Amino acid sequence: MLIKFAVRNYRGFANRIELNLSQPSNYTFSTFAVKDGVIKNGIIYGPNGSGKSNLALALFDIVNHLSQKWKKNNYYTNFAYAGKPTDPVVFEYTFKLGVYEIFYAYSKRTNGSLMTEKLLVNGKEIFNRKEGHFSIDNKAYPMDATIKGNLANNANHVSVINFLLTSYPLSKDHYLILLQEFVNSMLWFKSLETREFIGLDNHPTNLDEYIIKNKLVNDFQDFIEKVSEQRFSFVEPVENDKVLYCTYDDSKIAFDQIASTGTQSLKLLYFWIKQMDKASFVFIDEFDAFYHFKLAYEVCKQLFALDCQVFTSSHNTYLMTNDLLRPDCNFILNDNNIKPLNECTQKELRFAHNIEKMFRGGTFAI
């Protein structure tokens, strides 16, 4: 699991900002949202322009150089903070993977090329690469001076982790293998004007074809009705069909022609939920942009019931309720800082409290 993340000089974040998931409170309700002492589910709130989307994208920077999964084409546009465009962008990740606590920090130039890398496992330094300098645990990874020199200079900007993964035989429970599997299984996506994603899959998928090919038409119909109370009658597809059709009286019409923007967004969500049994960490940016507030609540219940870590960003304070999540799983992002609700007030928060009303009344402040 991801237990801590920090970034500096990235897009709108001039200073270091840290998301800490390793210090849950001792609430006795919504215990599903915490797993092995780590916050598993959360919603990030903040005003427009506070950096919710930027934080989510920063979290997935690691996918860009450690994974071969799908990447965002324009990810490195406006990569560094505009006030310091020549300064490196610095990332720090802490993972809890099996018996290992893995700390991985690195920096990148504004074009995305790696500058420095450092890896610690259970507090022990495994390697440290700075420009012109490279050190490594020689017992774990014996290598000659020439290779060390090449890694120190690293003209082709290869990740040391990827080099070690391809150069040394490792057991399936080795910390590098576990890290690789986690990163390969991370997923970020959004469904606004354009549909984009990072990680987990290798290429975009036609959603209608996916549902038809995998014989999920009835399951998709049930999903739509369960979460949104909309009833569609889908036509049973025949061989080679690539479009979902619905029936209205004696008429047949393509689903996408009659579905609202929010309902089409549900189709995308349905597709990704079907993939999330393979996911490690999921972030859905502005997941409820097209949803009715009650629909957003039902969707969250579905998402937070999954085994993987799932986080979303939202402006919908209807979701800020102890019936859905705990105060330590609702985060406020503003002014280059992010904190859970319980750290934004001196009040002792209890299950019976109306958290949304308290938020609107100005109880919580960073």
Explained architecture:
By secondary structure, the protein is of the alpha+beta class. The chain folds into two domains: 2-200 and 279-360, P-loop containing nucleotide triphosphate hydrolases (Rossmann fold, 3-Layer(aba) Sandwich); 209-261, no CATH class. Helix content is 27%, strand content 26%. The protein contains eleven helices and 18 strands. The chain has helices spanning 52-59, 61-66, 145-153, 160-167, 175-184, 207-213, 217-228, 255-258, 261-275, 293-304, 355-360; strands at 2-8, 17-20, 34-35, 38-39, 41-45, 89-97, 100-108, 114-121, 124-130, 133-136, 186-191, 195-198, 245-248, 251-254, 281-285, 309-313, 330-334, 337-340. Strands 2-1-6-7-8-9-10 form a seven-stranded antiparallel sheet. It has a seven-stranded mixed sheet with strand order 12-11-15-16-5-17-18. α7 packs across α9. The radius of gyration is 22 Å and the shape is globular. The model has no long low-confidence stretch (mean pLDDT 89).
User: Which percent range fits the helix content?
Assistant: 25-40%
Alpha-beta content class: alpha+beta
Kindly state the number of beta strands: 18
Helix tally equals: 11
> And the CATH topology of the largest domain?
Rossmann fold
Count of discrete structural domains: 2
Shape: globular
Return residue spans where pLDDT drops below 50 for at least 5 consecutive residues.
Answer: none
Strand order of the largest sheet: 2-1-6-7-8-9-10
Quote the average pLDDT: 89
Order of helices and strands: EEEEEHHEEEEEHHHEEHHEEHHEHEEEH
